[in-house]
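Changelog excerpt

This revision adds worked examples to the README so contributors can see how folded entries look when concatenated. The first example is reproduced verbatim below.
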Amino acid sequence: MNPHERLLACLRQEAIDRMPAACPLQTGTLDLMRLTGASWPQAHFDSAQMAHLSAGASTYAGFESARIPFDVVVDAEALGANLGGANEHTAPFVMVPRIIEKGDIGALDVSSPETRGRVPMLLDAIRRLKRLVPDVPVICAHHAPFTLAAQLRGEERSMMDIATDPDFFLRLIEVTTRWSVELNGVLTDAGAEVITVMDAEANNFILGPREFERFALPGEKAVAKAIARKGACSVLHICSDIGLTTEMMVSTGVNALSIGQGTSIRETRAKVRDRCAIIGNVNPGTTLAEGTPAEVAADTLRCIHEGVDIAAPGCGFSPRTPLVNMIAMTSSILSHGLV
């Protein structure tokens, strides 16, 4: 099997020859920046640098995928949020939310995502990746409607809205759901074969099961259906605890759950069974960024033995992750991840 066939078959729960050495989360590191000549912050805003840095994870670290973008605010910026914070070590983040007053929701324009903010640059980066590393599948990420709504409103205001004016926040989620559905179409049309849907704000520390079912679940389902309609595969990533909402996450119809290092693989497998794939959950901090190659190999094998379908970081790679540790991960998968 080639990497395209292997990853898509794995995500669709079909027979594969071995575990894919793929990563649905961000892979930009300082070592790869030096090797590729493509660095943050420029690689967040320039399609050529974004493509070259993403391709570096395959060329130099052995990953059988290429994942973009490196930050999680492309959607929020395209819808009018102001960004800050971008430098060689830090990805951009939302500095000023878009929906300060509740009346601001009426001015949100979610039409034509292919023309908004950095989305045109992202689409060009996908096309460049298809030429740079044609042998590996392209994975593109964006936020789920709930987390995007929280970014646009600001986390503190969002939590207050959920408690005191839930109908308003649900209206905002309806808007962000329309954006996310349309965005998936342009990303897959450009060549993305897998979409990672990030819903960090929907973890169990923020939303209990009842709140998750009301605020996060409908948007996740709509996005998963939109991705499936385009013939692509979907990965739902929540890096913090999901123990209370795992069953609902599976019910979205996504192809895979990507879980953080704080979530038990064995418990997740018992709940998921064979209804979708499980990806995770090598510790991106103490193991990948700070550990030795031997420790990385051991943690990767732990994930494999505990039952993941794809061994990968529990969250995006820290920029300071040594290249030797990335190679230790992919080498362990290729050597011992046979199914």
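The second example, added in the same revision:
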Amino acid sequence: MAQDSMGDLPLEEFEIPAADEVEALRQERDELRDKFMRALADAENARKRAERDRREAEQYGGSRLARDMLSVHDNLKRALDAASEEHRAAAAALIEGVELTLRELSSTLAKHGVTAVSPAIGDIFDPQLHQAMFEAPVPGTTAGQIIQVMTEGFLLHDRLLRPAQVGVSSNTGG
């Protein structure tokens, strides 16, 4: 009885698989390798997706609160805009307090990535940043020029939080 090089098993006990069995095993191996590679790719994609979701939640998670705070900002600006010189002289301390509050609110919003979109009269209307509230033919303007700014818009990092509300010229010529 012949023995293998290890000296412990007789060679007669080894059965050499047929060629079709070898091919079936290779196919199974290849299928398992393919499934394994797909599972690795899926796991990597899930990791990247979770990381992206985490970053977005960190960056944009406060967008509802920031959006709600914009009305406070608007009201403070309206209060200051409504104050005449007589009111400013009579209630200087109150006006200064409102101005300080508005500056603090603006600073806090900026610290968290909220920036104002402040179009000027004469700028070109940009539907990505502005919301047209009305159109009117105004002499000396061309179609698409901003003729009035009702409220500022705001961005949260690179996302529009609220568009600037503007009036737009409907003139077809200058």
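Reviewer comment on example two: Residues 114 and 156 are 4 Å apart (CA to CA). The first helix runs from residue 19 to 60.
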